[in-house]
Specification:
Keywords: Signal. The protein is mainly beta. It folds into two domains: about 30 residues, no CATH class; about 80 residues. It contains one helix and twelve strands; from the N terminus they run H-E-E-E-E-E-E-E-E-E-E-E-E.
Length: about 150
């Protein structure tokens, strides 16, 4: 038995997608704009806005945490394995910190000299909030670079 609906499968999917996306074709989005990051095993990680408009995350995510001896505000890392690298012209302490569940920041790596072996490996949970605290330093720069899987 064959049913006739009067709509093609493509037209039905187009109509359904317009309903699910909040009538985006008419500029009436009913969903808030929220940036999310999505990752499935064996798939390139994506960052998406509103569940659409997905873009691949660069295989080498680099967060600049200190520039010209000024620490940036806390930044969100995708998560996974990273290399923390820093260099200063004069040292005190360069401390990499991650935000804990209580909202406070905890030091996970502390440096008092230049990295001579290319940096320190750290592992971060998904969407970890990180920052650097400087104490008694001159001319510092620090980055956190994601190691691609």
């Amino acid at each position: 038995m064959r049913m006739r609906t009067g709509l093609s499968v493509a037209a039905g999917l187009l109509l359904l997608s317009g309903v699910l996306l909040g009538h985006a074709a008419h500029g009436q989005s009913t969903f808030p704009t929220v940036a999310t990051r999505v990752r499935a095993p064996g798939v390139v990680p994506l960052t998406c806005r509103d569940g659409r408009d997905c873009q691949p995350i660069a295989a080498q995510e680099v967060l600049v945490l200190v520039s010209a001896n000024a620490a940036t505000a806390a930044q969100t890392a995708f998560g996974g394995d990273y290399i923390f690298a820093q260099v200063c012209t004069a040292y005190g302490t360069v401390a990499l910190q991650v935000q804990g569940p209580d909202g406070g920041f905890q030091t996970i790596s502390s440096k008092a000299a230049s990295d001579t072996a290319g940096g320190t490996q750290v592992r971060l949970g998904a969407s970890a909030s990180v920052r650097v605290q400087l104490s008694g330093t001159i001319g510092c720069a620090a980055t956190l670079s994601r190691v691609p899987n």
